[in-house]
Amino acid sequence: MTEKKKLTLKDIAKELGISVSTASRALKEHPDIAKDTIRAVKEYAEAHNYVPNFLAVNFRKSRTFNIGLIVPELVHHFFSTVISGVIDEAKKYGYNVLVSQSNDLLHDEKIACRAMLASSVDGLLISISNETLEGDHLLDFISEGKPVVQFDKITDKLDTPKVTVDDLEGAYNAVGHLIKQGYKRIAHLRGRENVKNANERFQGYFKALTDNNMQTSSNWIKSCIAISEQEGYDFAKELMESPNPPDAIFCITDLVALGVIKYLKESGYTIPEQVGVMGFSNWKLAEVVSPGLSSVDQHGYNMGIKSVKLLIELIQNHDLENQATLELKTNLVVRESSLKQPD
Amino acid sequence: MTEKKKLTLKDIAKELGISVSTASRALKEHPDIAKDTIRAVKEYAEAHNYVPNFLAVNFRKSRTFNIGLIVPELVHHFFSTVISGVIDEAKKYGYNVLVSQSNDLLHDEKIACRAMLASSVDGLLISISNETLEGDHLLDFISEGKPVVQFDKITDKLDTPKVTVDDLEGAYNAVGHLIKQGYKRIAHLRGRENVKNANERFQGYFKALTDNNMQTSSNWIKSCIAISEQEGYDFAKELMESPNPPDAIFCITDLVALGVIKYLKESGYTIPEQVGVMGFSNWKLAEVVSPGLSSVDQHGYNMGIKSVKLLIELIQNHDLENQATLELKTNLVVRESSLKQPD
Fold first, then answer.
1. Are A91 and B81 an interchain contact pair (Cβ–Cβ within 8 Å)?
2. Which residue of B has its CA nearest to A112?
3. What pLDDT, on a 0 to 100 scale, did the predictor assign at position A79?
4. Which of A80, A83, A115 sits opposite B91 (nearest CB)?
5. How far does the CA of residue A305 sit from the closest CA of chain B (Å)?
6. Residue spans of chain A under pLDDT 50
């Protein structure tokens, strides 16, 4: 940093190894912040001529009534429904929405963020890419006085408000249903290990098995990377050709489940009699595929509404410190693919 | 109009009953414009103190590097692919994209347009709603020096560049394929009569029948309003229960075809043996449904790229007079639903 550049909250946070919101609260002597931290921040700010009201002043001036929205993928039923909810709700408050996609790549996500900042959005809604672990690039928004709300795919390493679905409970209920239907050997095609919702769905799966005194095997748990139909197909083949094949497969998303169904049908397995299949997301295709795919509905439209309402509230209140977490409930949609014992 | 308000190109066009681009070209004495028109426009402009260079000057100043994009529906596979193409391509030129939806309602489309104008977009990409017949509200962009490009669902009543697919040829090839497969009584579930692409698909259907010396009946042609799965289901029922049922049904979109397949399967008809089914758009669901649905691929991603490239070119060239029409080719994707005579 050159001497001439104005010191930002982000600089202070970085220098002291704390989050931007902690630095901000420390400057205001917030009771949640440790005395030592408050002292350190204030001393640093004073020594470097930090102008504490800079953000608040800047905030009001720069209002464009544009909000940024970045999703991993646009051609994706769930994210389409979220975007639709965001745009419909934003309209009610007079906000327009700039939309971009990261293609699940950190590099593209950073470019999208820079473009949004260049366009002076008033705040950002983001569902992070599979490659995003820290999310430091999102701090640029906060240090410019623009709130960020994370939704669906989030990182806990960043202190921003978050809107998620209760993935753990959704998975727990889905696997609980498979158990009630009489499936005994339930495999799981999970997502990447660094992705929060993949971990929560895995935990829900594991908890449902444990609570029902059922066992699993590491051979029955496979990690999808691309979360694709092809992976579903390939892992289903691997599982069913193994010495100890499962009798049900719980998949991280409907697209993966689609590949599983394709393999099982091609190989002459009956669904749901011989093998049960469960997806997650409840895309349109879950209804269309044959047999109909049981899945977990995530209510994307509602998530879009909730996320943008929260963001607009933060923008209007000049609130960069909020760390609210909203967890939306899912519901199980049972179709033929898991109905071993119809009533 | 009060005396104080600055006269715009739109005012002149309206007063003289000509299009904005005609008025603009008349002022520049463009050779394509009739002498009388040129004289009338120039006289009117002079009498009302019109400042002819206003647009060009304003143009450069107001650049925001934001583009507006309005589609009928966001939760729609085809439009998602178009949006994805627009955003990916716009990024290369440093443009962000404000996205909105009209829900296929004229009222909502007007609101979306006003919001985009308020946000000072540099230009607009729009696929109009089913209710939009004239598109006068789009002139507000042109009179503010912001080019408009229409794509997919367009109106010829507005002189703007247009990017469409060759719907007529797509439908012609689809119905030609049904004829080659030996279907003799081909019904068509078409779209609204005031919607251009619905008319072109109907014309393609009709031309394929005529060129092959085949007949149709008005009883075999039904107009969908909502373009929904339910309409497909209901019309299929009506057609198949009629005294002279068809042996193939060509549908305006895959979603309508989905309803047709649902009805046929429920009622015990075999597809493609007893009844062939053809969709249009080639959504993901066409691949997923059983039997696989033959359809016409519209290459939405490419349409998005082409449309935004054209718009950016117009913005960069300050070109409000361009009326280029780009017609993209479709291709037929044959799956089981129409394959009566497999090789």
1. no
2. B91
3. 96
4. A115
5. 15
6. 1-4, 53-60
Contact across the interface for B100 and A91, Cβ inside 8 Å: yes
**Among B6-10, B39-43, B129-133, which is the least confidently predicted range?**
B6-10
**Per CATH, which fold does A167-298+332-338 belong to?**
Rossmann fold (3.40.50)
Secondary structure of A208-262 in HEC code, one letter for each residue: HHHHCCCCCCHHHEEECCCCCHHHHHHHHHHHHHCCCCCCEEEECCHHHHHHHHH
Q: Hey, are the CB atoms on B285 and A290 less than 8 Å from each other?
A: no
Q: Could you tell me which chain A residue has the CA closest to the CA of B113?
A: A96
Task: Write down the pLDDT at residue A341.
Answer: 80
- The whole-model pTM stands at 0.79
Q: What is the pLDDT, as a whole number, of residue B32?
A: 79
Same fold, B64-164+301-329 and B167-298+332-338: yes
CATH architecture for segment(s) B64-164+301-329: 3-Layer(aba) Sandwich (3.40)
- The closest CB to that of B98, out of A83, A96, A115, belongs to A96
Domain ranges of chain A: 9-52, 63-164+300-328, 167-298+332-338
The answer to whether B100 contacts A97, with C-beta atoms less than 8 Å apart, is yes
- Which residue in B98, B285, B288 is closest to A98 by CB distance? B98
For residue A29, give the amino acid letter.
E
Q: Identify whether the C-beta of residue B115 lies closer than 8 Å to the C-beta of residue A64.
A: no
Are A277 and A271 in contact by the 8 Å Cβ rule? The answer is yes
Cα separation, A291 vs A101, in Å, equals: 32
Contact A294, A332 (CB under 8 A): yes
Give the mean pLDDT of chain B: 90
Q: pLDDT for A127-145, tens place per residue?
A: 999 898 888 899 999 988 8
- A70-84 residue pLDDT tens: 999 999 999 999 999
Q: Who's near A259: CB < 8 A, 6+ residues apart?
A: A228, A229, A230, A231, A232, A233, A234, A235, A236
Report ipTM for this prediction: 0.77
CATH topology of domain A63-164+300-328: Rossmann fold (3.40.50)
Which residues of chain A approach chain B closer than 8 Å at the C-beta? 64-66, 74-77, 80-81, 83-84, 87-88, 91, 94, 96-101, 111-112, 115-116, 118-119, 258, 284-285, 288-290
Kindly report the nearest CA distance between residue B168 and chain A, in angstroms.
26
Alpha carbon distance B129, A196 (integer Å): 39
What's the confidence (pLDDT) of residue B249? 98
